Amino acid sequence: MEQTLTIRPGKGCVGEVSVPGDKSVSHRALMLGALAEGTTEITNFLRGADCLSTMDCFRKMGVSISDEGQVIRVFGKGLHGLSAPASTLDVGNSGTTTRLISGILAGQPFESTLNGDASIQKRPMGRVIEPLSQMGANIRSVKENGCAPLAISPCGLPGGRLKAIRYRTPVASAQVKSAILFAGMYGDGPVSVTEPAPTRNHTELMLAQFGAQIACQGTTATVWPEPALTAQKIRVPGDISSAAYFIGAGLIVPNSRILIKNVGINPTRDGILQAAQMMGGKITIENRDTSSAEATADLLVESSSLKAVTIGGSMIPSLIDELPMIAVMACFAKGTTIIRDAAELKVKESNRIDTVVTNLKAMGAHIEATSDGMIIHGGAPLHGAVIESYLDHRVAMSFAVAALAAEGPTQICNAGCVDISYPDFYRTLLGLCR
Ligand code: S3P
After folding, report:
1. Are 334 and 308 in contact (CB under 8 A)?
2. Most-buried pick from 260, 315, 387, 433 (CB within 10 A)?
């Protein structure tokens, strides 16, 4: 696609959308499918660049994966069936691929190297290196800077088994938790992880679905080793993180009414709904379907007069990826919005405190960066500007929505990075606009 995209103000966003499959769930379905016995069938899989990176990594480890029509089929190799990759595993831009796969690789009897793009080579991997090393894994940052490339070799412990640990994560990160739980399947006893605040629990839910023995109590998850994982049929729910842009557009673009179909509403992910409702946003949750582990619903969003909120504490992990969109929404809310306890924003695909604040300032917002979030004085109208995506998909998408609600045209530079999680994003969003 064109790398620079011009977006003009919208007079209203009206219609129905189905957002693509959830990125977190798609990654995990491929990974557990690869380690299960039998053929896992995945529908509504997200064909975004990040999940395709995961697919490519497993193909390089001898897993056959077919992608025909609506269904992805993963021909599982079993827990001990992966083979040594002939070359470096390329994780692209994907932090989820890097951290989750490193947990799996830590338990393998072969050597592997993980590497990705310039952004991934700056993201902190010490958070997985530390607990995996405590388990006896041989994992190191090749440049000794705590980042990728990561080199992983067999642990060399009796029976090739990793040591069972009980680990308290200093950061609330589902990626770290998942890496440890995956490594725990190759442990010599039960492995548990305790987090400082609850994070998305897709790994726990899916491990249970594939037949692993897993227990969750409060913010502690425990997995038992050597599970017999059995292939499953996984229907991936629509990604609430992708729905967030239509929630934002529906609320802040005047005269809007958007029905977003089949959105995952897992309570560990639904912070955007809570925040939007606290801001006075009109969101009606319809057609709840709780028949599978990952609940879904349709969301009807209508233009609303928003008011400021304070967002922080244990709510942050439930909306961490939606904070760029929430910051844009806060510009249209009456009063001062405070986002705090969100220093994790600095280590995402871009430093999202800096990139969001810089771009919103360019559009005329009254906003200040803080050490762990931002303060946004709402109500100043935004004007069109030249926006840089910083190759961060969530920044590009949030500012496409901001552009619709601003005065005058906005240019988004390096707009194509939305391919990471939502290849069809602009066509879908602009297709709703009047
Ligand atoms: C993810 C966890 C979150 C999130 C990321 C996806 C996952 O990252 O920001 O987009 O699928 O586990 P952290 O675990 O680093 O918080």
Report:
1. yes
2. 387
pLDDT digits (tens, 9 = 90+) for 293-318: 999 999 999 999 999 999 999 999 99
5-21+237-431 and 23-223 share one CATH topology? yes
pLDDT digits (tens, 9 = 90+) for 22-34: 999 999 999 999 9
Closest atom of ligand 1 relative to the 321 alpha carbon: 9
Q: Rounded to the nearest whole angstrom, what is the distance from the C-alpha of residue 420 to the centroid of ligand 1?
A: 14
Residue 321 is among the residues annotated as catalytic for this protein: yes
Q: Which atom of ligand 1 is nearest the CA belonging to 171?
A: 16
Distance 380 CA to ligand 1 centre (A): 32
Q: Please work out, in degrees rounded to the nearest 5, the angle formed at the alpha carbon of residue 263 by the alpha carbons of 258 and 266.
A: 135
Average pLDDT, the chain: 98
What ranges in 74-189 are assigned the alpha helix state H?
95-105, 126-134, 174-184
Q: CATH code for 23-223?
A: 3.65.10.10
Expressed in angstroms and rounded, the spacing between residue 239 Cα and the centre of ligand 1 is 13
User: For the residues 383-412, what does the mean pLDDT come to?
Assistant: 98
Q: What is the pTM of this model?
A: 0.98
pLDDT at 1: 56
Q: What is the mean pLDDT of residues 244-270?
A: 98
Cβ 93 under 6 angstroms from ligand 1: no
- Res 333: pLDDT: 98
- Ligand 1 pocket test, candidate residues 101, 125, 175, most atoms within 8 A of CB: 175
CATH topology of domain 5-21+237-431: UDP-n-acetylglucosamine1-carboxyvinyl-transferase; Chain (3.65.10)
Distance CA 353, CA 368 (A): 9
Statement: residue 2 has pLDDT above 80 = no
Q: How far apart are CA 329 and CA 252, in angstroms?
A: 7
Q: Side chain identity at 116, as an amino acid letter?
A: G
Q: Which long-range contacts (CB under 8 A, 24 or more apart) does 137-140 make?
A: 137/106, 137/107, 137/162, 137/183, 138/106, 139/102, 139/105, 139/106
pLDDT tens across 126-162, in order?
Answer: 999 999 999 999 999 999 999 999 999 999 999 999 9
- The pLDDT tens digits for 319-356 are 999 999 999 999 999 999 999 999 999 999 999 999 99
Of ligand 1's atoms, which has the minimum distance to the CA of residue 28? 11
Instruction: Read off the tokens for 63.
Output: 């897993």
Domain spans, the chain: 5-21+237-431, 23-223
